[in-house]
Each structure stands twice: as structure tokens, then as C-alpha cells.
Specification:
With 217 residues, the protein is α+β, with helices and mostly antiparallel strands. The chain has a single domain, classed as TcpA-like pilin, CATH 3.30.1690. It is built from four helices and four strands. The radius of gyration is 25 Å and the shape is elongated. Keywords: Membrane, Transmembrane, Transmembrane helix. Pfam families: N_methyl.
Length: 217
């Protein structure tokens, strides 16, 4: 007599267990991505605050503006890490950086970061000049400054700017520091990727776009 081989397969309980495990794994991945995004936002805010703190601390110590401080020979004469700086400002009481120079290190932009590093208020090489002197933010874009009358400001306004910020993160940064609106308050943004120079303020944040986010100093 021939015997039929018993057919094997997954029971409904086993399938349910597998689906639960898959759901937990997917939930863990999504939660992990959210934690990473939140950490980047927090790091970006820390970057802004670090530049602000360094800026005011420099003024307290030297009674001058970082980037505008000069001349070069007088800076180098301070000795220590100052001996090898390569950029000095004109000491006219204004940190002059156009909107177009925000992320290319032009004007007194690279001076600004050289001086803060030489003074020990920011980490990094105090001898690097040009765009290479600009720090990177947590989204891979640059950190620069400008005193241009852009983003809806009617007069020259000194700002620290972060380039290449994703829309969701830009909105979070604005909400946590300011009012969450792209064209009002102390935090404003220009739509554009790849370190777009600040210009016209965006009317709203879109998760499908990238932004240059600027905060007043």
C-alpha cells in the first residue's frame, strides 16, 4: 500500500509571528532614522549656538570683532596660535561679507573663523583660508556668515548660515530656536541646495526641498 507524504507548511500562528517580527524590525529602522535626524537637528542648533557664543566671547576678550580685527601683523604679534594666522581685517567695526561670499570664504568670512580658532573659541586649523576655513554642518553643508540685507531684512544684518539643510530639519531648527516661519523672526531661510547663498526668504518650509538657514548673531 502506498502512503502519501505529509505536506508541510507554515501555520497561521507561524505566519503571524513572522509578520510581527518584520513589523518590529521595520519600526526599529524607522525609529532609528528618526533618532538620527533629530540628532542632526540638535547638532545644527549646537553649531549655531557655538558660533554665537564664540562671537560674543571674542568681543569680551579683545573688544573687537572677529574677522574685522586687524591688522595682520598686530594679530600675529599676539603669539601662540596667532603667530601663523594669515588673515587680518580692516578694524572698521563691521564684519563685511556679502551674500555671495557666505559660503566661498570671501570678504571677512574666512577671517572670522580664523580669528575664533586662533583665540581658542572654536576648534580647527587657524591657518586655513578661503572656503576651506568654513566648518561643515551636520547635513554636509557649510557654515558661513554674512552681513547682507537679505532674507527680508531692510538693513545689513550679521547672520550665521547653514547650507544644504533638508526641509524637515530646517523647519525643526526654526521651530526650536525661533517661530518656525521661514520668512520672519531671528531664523530665516532661502530655498536651495548645495550651499545656496542667502537671498529671498522662503514663504514656507517643504520637506521636498533643501534650504540655507540663517540665524542672526
Amino acid at each position: 500500500m502506498a502512503f502519501k507524504r505529509a505536506q508541510t507548511g507554515f501555520t497561521l500562528v507561524e505566519i503571524a509571528i513572522v509578520l510581527v517580527i518584520i513589523g518590529l524590525l521595520l519600526g526599529g529602522v524607522l525609529k532609528g532614522q528618526e533618532l538620527i535626524e533629530n540628532a542632526k537637528v540638535k547638532n545644527a542648533i549646537n553649531d549655531i549656538n557655538a558660533v554665537k557664543t564664540a562671537y560674543y566671547s571674542y568681543q569680551d576678550r579683545y573688544k573687537r570683532l572677529p574677522g574685522d580685527d586687524g591688522n595682520l601683523a598686530a594679530l600675529q604679534a599676539r603669539g601662540g596660535t596667532w603667530a601663523n594666522v594669515t588673515q587680518g581685517g580692516d578694524n572698521n567695526g563691521v564684519i563685511a561679507v556679502t551674500a555671495a561670499q557666505t559660503f566661498n570664504g570671501g570678504g571677512e568670512n574666512d577671517n572670522f573663523f580664523q580669528h575664533l580658532r586662533a583665540a581658542g573659541f572654536l576648534t580647527g586649523d587657524a591657518t586655513v583660508a578661503g572656503a576651506a576655513a568654513l566648518p561643515r554642518n551636520s547635513f554636509g553643508g557649510l557654515i558661513g556668515i554674512t552681513n547682507a540685507a537679505v532674507l527680508g531684512y531692510n538693513q545689513a544684518t550679521l547672520m550665521v548660515c547653514l547650507g544644504n539643510v533638508p526641509g524637515k530639519a530646517a523647519a525643526a531648527i526654526d521651530s526650536q530656536i525661533d517661530d518656525g516661519v521661514a520668512n520672519t523672526g531671528s531664523v530665516r531661510a532661502t530655498q536651495g541646495a548645495n550651499n545656496t547663498a542667502p537671498g529671498v526668504a522662503a514663504t514656507a518650509y517643504s520637506e521636498d526641498q533643501s534650504y540655507t538657514v540663517c540665524s542672526t548673531l
